[in-house]
Write a structure and sequence with these properties.
Layout: E1 2-6, H1 12-22, E2 26-30, H2 41-46, E3 54-56, E4 62-64, H3 66-76, H4 91-113, H5 125-149, H6 161-172, H7 179-183, H8 185-195, H9 201-218
Parallel strand pairs: 1-2
Antiparallel strand pairs: 1-3, 3-4
């Protein structure tokens, strides 16, 4: 059985969606970064990077980085409904979309949410956050055009875990949980299709509700 460390509004939901979609046995062990539980000696012994999610595998190794975990699970268990096989012509497009989200979208989201980490001068944080917001939305608009031209999924008519990963980030939003999908109709359509899935949808909706509650209680300033 797999052991997934994370929960709450963390990116562990991406790995959890794959575990659920693939019907794999797992245990979810909560790790709350807000309480600093991701930096305890016990957790760092599992994942020296000090970030969630982490996935303890039945074979022993502990994996981290959500996109890598998601692809690993689908490939390891040959769940081609989630990830095209290496000899599938769509494998290249699949990997391209995964890496686009990881390389072009995720970094700007991190700078937006944690602007204070990217300068030693607190006065720089508002400018970093504003620039990250503009760059993130520009990158989302590129993905929106690709989906509009060849959707509704990232692989055209074929669902994959690339849609789960994209929907996870779209579900978080930036200034609000709705700003990305409001500006990107094709992204909204794909995200709605994921939310309509009986296994993935409730997980994303739970994260959205918890995120809204957290934003209301803190003002959403994670910097």
């Amino acid at each position: 059985m797999y052991v997934l460390y994370g929960g709450g509004v963390t990116r562990s939901v991406g790995a959890q969606m794959v575990l659920e979609e693939a019907g794999l046995d797992y245990e979810l062990r909560p790790v709350d970064p807000i309480k600093g539980e991701h930096r305890t000696p016990e957790f760092l012994a599992l994942n020296p990077a000090g970030l969630v999610p982490a996935l303890e595998t039945p074979e022993g190794p502990v994996l981290h980085e959500v996109a890598g975990i998601m692809v690993y699970l689908a490939d390891r268990h040959r769940v081609t409904d989630l990830a095209p096989a290496p000899d599938d012509p769509l494998r290249g497009t699949f990997l391209s979309r995964i890496f686009y989200v990881v390389s072009d979208i995720e970094p700007h989201a991190k700078r937006f949410f944690y602007a204070g980490r990217f300068s030693s001068d607190p006065a720089d944080a508002p400018r970093i956050k504003a620039a990250a917001l503009a760059l993130a939305m520009e990158r989302w608009s590129v993905l929106d055009r690709m989906l509009a031209d060849n959707g509704p999924y990232n692989l055209g008519d074929r669902f994959s875990l690339a849609d789960l990963l994209m929907a996870m980030w779209a579900n978080y939003g930036l200034e609000t949980t709705e700003d990305i999908v409001a500006a990107c109709p094709a992204v909204r359509r794909c995200t709605e299709l994921v939310i309509a899935r009986p296994k993935s949808g409730p997980l994303l909706e739970k994260v959205r509700r918890e995120l809204i509650a957290w934003q209301e209680s803190t003002g959403g300033d994670g910097s």
